[in-house]
Amino acid sequence: MFMRVIIAGGGDMGKGYAEALLREGHDAVIIEKDERRAEALAEAVDALVMHGDATEKGILRDADTGSCDAFAALTGDDKANLLAALAAIELGAGKVAARVNDPKNEEAFRKEGVKLVINTTAMAISFLSKAFAQPGAQRKPGRGGRKYV
Asked: Rounded CA gap, 76 and 93, in Å?
């Protein structure tokens, strides 16, 4: 199923997600606030890159957010992600997801109505816990139980 996804934020996560979408044959639109980064993205990624603030409804309307299949707020700023996600919901975007950088903010996102919350810190902790608990994880002898002094 073809999807048109709008991504707020063209940092490593936004760019990486756009590239993954494009590889799978989907359409990606990136909205990037920093002009230099937007220009660099336009050269590097085969997607529509818009220079603007994704918290502003005008730029979201210009991106045709109301008819997109999904909207992902992936900036490094929780406040911007929340505002962009709420605006996308209000404009009628399909599914809406938002990245939470500070785990303490996750509940606030959910209370405001963002149903798909990506807590990158919790995901990394979970991954590491599972990876290190696997049989065969490397362990140096004599290193257990050390305390910092």
From this structure: 21
Q: Is 79 exposed, middle or buried (0-12, 13-18, 19+ CB in 10 A)?
A: exposed
The structure's pTM equals 0.87
Amino acid making up residue 138? Q
Mean pLDDT, residues 43-68 taken together: 97
Tell me the CA distances in angstroms from 97 to 7, 42, 72, 82, one per residue in order: 10, 23, 5, 9
pLDDT for position 53: 98
CATH for the 4-119 domain, from 3.40.50.720, 3.40.50.2000, 3.90.740.10, 3.40.50.300? 3.40.50.720
Order across the sheet with 4-8: list the strands: 48-51, 27-32, 4-8, 70-73, 95-100, 116-119
pLDDT score of 110? 96
The pair of three-digit structure tokens given for residue 10, joined into one six-digit string: 């063209």
Token output for 104: 């303490």
Boundaries of every domain in the chain: 4-119
* Tokens of residue 102, six digits: 């500070």
